[in-house]
Amino acid sequence: MDSTIEVLNSVDVGGILTVACEMSDGNLAVGNQDGIVNIISPNGNKKESFELDGEIIGLFEIDSNLIVGSSISGISAYSGGLIWNHELNSGCEIISLCGSDFLVADSSGSLFRFDSNGTLMWKKELGQMTHICSNQDGDISAVALENGDFIIIDSSGDKIIKSEASSDDIETISSMIFRSGDILVVARNSLGMAIDDRPENRIECWSPEKGKIHSCEVDSLVNCITSTEKGVILGCFNGELLELEIQSKKYNQLSKFDYSIKQIFSWKEDILVASWFDIIRLNLEGNIIWSLEHIGIVEKIVPIGESRVAILGDDKKQYIPTPIFIIDPDSEIISNEYNFKEENFNSEYSGALSPEEEQASSMKPLLPPDSNEILEALDEELEIEISSPAIEVDILEDLSKSAKSLNIPPIVDVGEDKTVSSESDGTAVVLLDGSKSYDPDGKIKSWSWENDSGKVVSNNSQVKVKLSQGVHIFYLTVVDDRGASSKAALTVQVL
Questions:
Q1: With contact defined as beta carbons under 8 Å apart, do 222 and 201 qualify?
Q2: pLDDT one-digit tens code per residue, 50-87
Q3: Does residue 226 belong to any structural domain of this protein?
Q4: How many angstroms separate the CA atoms of 214 and 225, rounded?
Q5: Residue 196: what pLDDT?
Q6: Nearest CA-CA partner of 113 in 100, 125, 103, 126
Q7: Angle 36-75-425 (CA atoms, 0-180°, nearest 5)?
Q8: Residue 133 near residue 166 (C-beta atoms within 8 A)
Q9: Pick from 256, 288, 321: which residue ends a domain?
Q10: Which end of the chain is more exposed for a tag (fewer CB within 10 A), N or C?
């Protein structure tokens, strides 16, 4: 029997939502691709909104202040209005809570640490970053780089450990977290170009004091990781949900879904799993308690207090927003099964047979008088040919399998070529905007802006560049969540 729960509220705040966070007053802050931040109540009422330049990259609360990271505007703090703002020359790529402070990565490869008041504590040049995470106290952090390296640093930004990617293969880091005891769990992947025994997909465990403790192989790229008492639960690209015990290196499959797992969220003794359009609640034995379908592909699960969560989705249609679902995971479970007994059929038109019709249908048909002679002749002359049974092919099933294996490349939209006038110093600040790019059957995982000399200028969908007079060509490459890529060029003339 399929079981589900009711949606408490469906909230449409407009725009393609990117991030959300719980606030101490019980409200929910959500940000979208257009730079708009909305504050909504658990009941779905919009209470406040403000707008920044660029896409909203991150949101979290420190000391009752809402910290906002924008791809163009840098970082800002709000509490009933703007408190402070730090513009970053290369915008904001990643923003991550670090104890009572926070870390910010820009598109130029710089890492900043700010305290809760917005004071810059230090700046380090590390290279293009893809992931940042910190332990609970914020005194140890890990930074994953675009080239597949990762670095463990202390609260001063000094390197403790650096793990370099293999030089003979292309490696990436898809996810990482700190669990109890300051153990860093890293999901590492390679293309398998090198012919050796190194697994293409593996989980590595690192200690800041001891270095790499151990590693183990998994069958698929790991999209997300959540910690448990004994180890971690892994959400994989191939739809597998795996439980890994750190000490024994053993893992077992809790469940297998048809689509990639986007997020795992702990809820009391169970977990909530985001896979395609669905939110599924499972216990730690892998038994499904209920499932709920969203209008869009589920991107985020965010807590609101102790009894509710918000579900953000995206239907992947260009600039068509999907609502926020607010649910209570402990709501009464209802059945999706249809009860035919509740229907009241009119017996006159129900299709039931009359007693006379039922009797006639059970009787053997009468044969004509000369039927015996005909049957005997047929028995003598008819040759029965036995052939191999035809193999039936389920065309729909085959088409479904083929459709799942196909991957449509993403659509790149950089807008029209630009002609702008320079300022008195002979330069102009130009916005490169690829935010309207989209993937028809998935999600864009990465953006990369390059200039005409091949140098990467940003890994954001939007970036401001300062240009001298002349003609400049930029190229935007987008890659979707299944590895397909597309590229487009933009010409900017500065007069």
A1: yes
A2: 999 999 999 999 999 999 999 998 999 999 899 999 99
A3: yes
A4: 17
A5: 61
A6: 103
A7: 100
A8: no
A9: 256
A10: N
Both tokens of 431, joined, read 């916005």
Q: Is residue 451 in a domain?
A: yes
Q: Which of 177, 203, 209 is nearest to 188 (CA)?
A: 203
Residues whose CB is less than 8 angstroms from the CB of residue 263 and which lie 6 or more positions away in sequence, other chains included: 224, 235, 273, 274, 298, 299, 300, 301
How many domains does the chain fold into? 2
Amino acid at 74: G
Q: Is residue 394 part of a domain?
A: no
Q: Report the CATH number at residue 426.
A: 2.60.40.10
Question: Which of 484, 486, 485, 481 lies closest to 238 in space, CA to CA?
Answer: 481
- The residue type found at 328 is D
φ, ψ at 460 (rounded to 5°): -100, 160
Task: Please report which confidence band the pLDDT of residue 350 belongs to, taking 50, 70 and 90 as the band edges.
Answer: very low
Position 263 in a domain: no
Strand ranges across the sheet with 297-304: 9-11, 324-327, 308-314, 297-304
Residue 231 sits in which domain range? 126-256
3-state per-residue secondary structure call for 146-194: CCCCEEEEECCCCEEEEECCCCCCCEEEEEEEEEHHHEEEEEEEECCCC
pLDDT beyond 80 at 354: no
* CATH number for the domain that contains residue 176: 2.130.10.10
pLDDT averaged over every residue in the chain: 85
Rama region for 15: left / alpha / beta (φ>0; ψ in -120 to 50; rest) = left
Mean pLDDT of 21-27: 93
Q: Residues for the chain: how many in total?
A: 495
Residues 96, 40: Cα–Cα separation, whole Å = 22
What letter does residue 91 receive in the DSSP assignment? -
Higher pLDDT pick, 400 / 259: 259
- pTM (predicted TM-score): 0.71
Write down which residue in 239, 256, 273 finishes a domain.
256
> What percent of the chain lies above the pLDDT cut of 90?
52
CA distance 281 to 267: 9
CA-atom Rg of the chain in angstroms: 29
**Closest C-alpha to 404, from 271, 269, 258:** 258
